[in-house]
Write a structure and sequence with these properties.
The protein is built from 10 helices and 8 strands. It is α/β, with parallel strands linked by helices. It has a 6-stranded parallel beta sheet with strand order 5-6-4-3-7-8, with helices on both faces. It has a two-stranded antiparallel ribbon with strand order 1-2. The structure holds farnesyl diphosphate (FPP). The site of farnesyl diphosphate has 19 residues, from helix 2, helix 3, strand 4 and helix 5.
Amino acid sequence: MASSPPIGRTGSGPPPCLSVELAPGPDLKKCRKSNIEASSLYPSATLRIHELTAEERAVYATLKPERLPEHVAIIMDGNGRWAGHRSLKRFLGHQQGAKSVQLVTETASRIGLPWLTLYAFSLENNLRRPRAEVNFLMRLLKSYLESNLQRMMDNNVRMRYIGRTHELPPEVQDKMAWAADATARNTGTTLTLALNYGGRSELVDAFRGLAAEMKHKHLSPDRITEEDIHRHLYTAHMPDPDLLIRTSGEMRLSNYLLWQVAYTEIFVTERLWPDFRGIHLLEAIADFQRRERRYGGLGEGSAEAPGEVDEEAERFKIAAG
Ligand code: FPP
């Protein structure tokens, strides 16, 4: 258990059917120190490549370490379908999905990924799913945090949350605060769970905050910059995602990080979330590294230098004009 004492109401523990505890992770004391290198992106973190599975290491070997994304966001979809394909109840799909959360987080921490942000519970889930499913997801979250805190500590993972989390049940908020406090001093991957989160409501909250600040400082609206809006987002402390992964094949953003994904590369896989593992994260990163990011400019392969006058285009303008 974490060295920090439990804070808030921790309850008497989850019922056995809710446990999302996984088999013990690798014994860190047995790891060869010589394989531990500093991450260039995140110097205070250490790479633990030797802890990847052989299959993961084979994919990792194809990656360019200097071009790893800084921030990966994931829309975890397909828990219900995973269960349906096996004639199981939906809640078993969510339970299996929670195992994927932990395994993917651990792979992220081993490769020194600084930021991992998972869409765990949307505002729409809260409003539109049957109460029984919402209640189950809340109990699962509590159980997940309780069961996996030690693994978060072992993997040097820091836990944070974004969303209207103050609307979640108090006992869930207590458990969330307990896990965030216990992991606050960890220096590896920051795992952010988006809970009771909606991209539009995040923007509403940001604009409210900004409007209050402007009123307080007597500033005129035409002074507002993109940076001002960024400062009031839930994600103000982190870089925008470089890569957004969505499982189960849907081509939608589903109200996730709407402002932040302006220039994010999107990777959609047919794989359902409960079947998604660390190796699939690495495969998505390999695909990301084959992309050319342009941010609205010309690609590296463009023959024309910026500022160069294109005579053909000039002539065309004259002819057309
Ligand atoms: C979508 O499945 C997934 C969610 C409702 C959110 C993700 C939840 C988890 C991974 C489980 C718990 C997470 C934590 C952090 C403990 P869906 O029900 O929409 O699947 P479907 O589209 O196939 O019906």
